[in-house]
Design goal:
By secondary structure, this protein is mainly α. It has helices at 2-13, 18-24, 53-57, 67-70, 87-99, 110-119, 133-146, 158-171, 181-205, 232-238, 246-251, 257-280, 290-312, 320-335, 351-362, 364-388, 401-412, 425-481, 486-495, and strands at 39-44, 47-52, 74-75, 80-83, 211-213, 253-255. A hairpin with a 2-residue loop joins strand 1 and strand 2 (47-52).
Length: 496
């Protein structure tokens, strides 16, 4: 094989004569393999290409000009260097050598051509068409959303490296520097499930079916806790709330014990996770995220609500001071619903979520115009219908312009609660115009938003394909280095 390497080197560098080459290839390569030293014969999956030596010399660092890389692919029967690659993609690489322009073959993605360019080690910095401004912009937006913190510089202490690895583990399951990727994904899924479960428990805890009388709040009136009933009216009667405002009933009752303890456990998990993130955070980029401050505010709110409950739970609600404390507890508990935004911390794990966020960000101008159009139409139709409804009786139709604002928005968005509606011929006519205008106005930005969504979706799909291809390649290299045989890798490919 070393003789073949010398042949390839001679073909490229033109440093040996024909006689020297024939001597070197005795019993190794047929004489016609080096018949014409001005060309390089390459066979790509059965299709033969003849590459000019002058063309190769313009790219001295490419695989074409690397004899030690080409020698391993020499096939005497084919009288050429054989590569099991795609001929169309290889032809695109040759066009780069010839014209310094990237042309993507029909039916192929640009990423496949880029992979072929990397395989042949062809420099692509100055190639026209490689650096697509639109793709660079899209990639920059995805990277902005991922908000990845760069790794510590080389030579850093082991503590900093370990801290960064732990940070990537809990924040970036699909990141390039994340180890134990499956465990990281499992941790992210657990965090998302915990948030969703907390939201469900919070909603169930507000229902009279799952609340009981707080004996500490009104011990003089209630001595026994009630049981859960299936009928809403019965549940309200059992709680003694049928003649009370909702807020009073809410203060004087508490969720079932299993709901309360489950919420406490989840709050503890959220606070612990926030503390871990604060400890492991390798830079200030973490504090530039809104979700970070939501975590901090919600954690402080949970601790404050728990502290106030310890004080209030042993007191009867007899004065304004105690009542105000209960109001504060309710507000602090309501802040916890902001934790739903924690899901956006793992947007990189959920394709649709990341695409939706970037789409809304890109369409802020269109959404602002939509709101402006709806407000202008609201003022016009609300004023018109309130004027035309002056001929109706009191308590019938749209009472005044203020209620007209509500009626116009509900009508334009095609919700139509029916609590207010016109009752005169002129009011009917305005109502028809209002409904038709609402459909037109709300439909106008849909096409723009949809086009943005498609652009981001396609780019994200390409990113994911490249990511998983890189992970698959890394996994195979790891198996090979660990002693895995080729047959084992073939079985792995068949399973995939």
């Amino acid at each position: 094989m070393s003789d073949v390497a010398a042949v390839a080197s001679a073909v490229i560098n033109m440093s040996l004569s024909n006689e020297d080459l024939k001597k070197m290839t005795t019993n190794k390569v047929e004489d016609n393999a080096v018949k014409d030293l001005h060309f390089l014969h390459i066979n790509i999956s059965g299709q033969k290409f003849i590459v000019s030596n002058q063309l190769i010399k313009g790219y001295p660092h490419s695989k074409f000009a690397s004899p030690h890389l080409l020698a391993d692919h020499w096939i005497e029967e084919l009288n050429a260097f054989y590569f099991d690659r795609d001929p169309a993609l290889f032809n695109a690489v040759l066009n780069i050598l010839r014209y310094n322009v990237l042309n993507v073959p029909s039916g192929y993605d640009k990423e496949l051509v880029m992979e072929e360019i990397n395989f042949w080690n062809v420099p692509k910095e100055d190639v026209e068409g490689v650096q697509d401004d639109e793709e660079l912009r899209l990639e920059a937006e995805f990277q902005w959303l991922e908000n990845r913190i760069p790794p510590p510089p080389s030579g850093s202490s082991k503590f900093l490296e370990l801290r960064y690895k732990c940070w990537c583990f809990i924040t970036d399951p699909l990141g390039p520097y994340t180890q134990y990727r499956r465990m990281s994904i499992a941790y992210a899924v657990f965090s998302i499930v915990a948030v969703v479960l907390y939201m469900i428990l919070y909603g169930i805890g507000t229902s009279p079916h799952y609340r009981v009388i707080d004996e500490h709040a009104l011990p003089a009136l209630y001595t026994n806790k009630t049981e859960r009933t299936t009928n809403l009216d019965s549940a309200i009667d059992n709680l003694g709330c049928s003649q009370m405002p909702k807020i009073s009933c809410y203060i004087r009752t508490t969720p079932l014990l299993w709901i309360t303890y489950s919420k406490y456990a989840l709050k503890f998990v959220f606070i612990l996770e926030t503390l871990i993130r604060l400890i492991l955070c390798p830079g200030l980029a973490y504090f530039r995220s809104i979700i970070t401050w939501i975590d901090i505010v919600a954690g402080i709110g949970a601790l404050a609500a728990f502290a106030i409950e310890i004080v209030v739970v042993t007191k009867e609600i007899v004065g304004e001071a105690e009542m105000h404390l209960h109001y504060i507890v309710i507000c602090l508990q309501s802040i916890q619903i902001l934790r739903i935004f924690k899901i956006f911390q793992y947007a990189s794990l959920i394709d649709g979520l990341m695409v939706m966020m970037l789409t809304l960000k890109a369409c802020l101008k269109e959404l602002f115009l939509l709101v402006m159009y709806l407000l202008i139409a609201m003022f016009i139709f609300a004023t018109s219908v309130s004027f035309l409804e002056l001929q109706s009786e009191m308590g019938v139709g749209v009472p005044d312009c203020v209620y007209g604002y509500w009626w116009a928005i509900i009508t334009m968005t095609t919700v139509g609660y029916g609590d207010f509606y016109p009752s005169t011929v002129g009011g009917y006519f305005v109502g028809v115009l209002c409904a038709i205008s609402g459909i037109i106005l709300t439909a106008l930005p849909v096409a723009i938003i949809g086009s943005h969504f498609n652009v981001y979706w396609e780019h994200n799909r390409k990113r994911r394909r490249l990511l998983f291809a890189a992970l698959k390649k890394k996994h195979k290299q790891k198996n090979i280095s660990a002693g895995t045989t080729t047959s084992d890798i073939s079985k792995l490919n068949s399973q995939e």
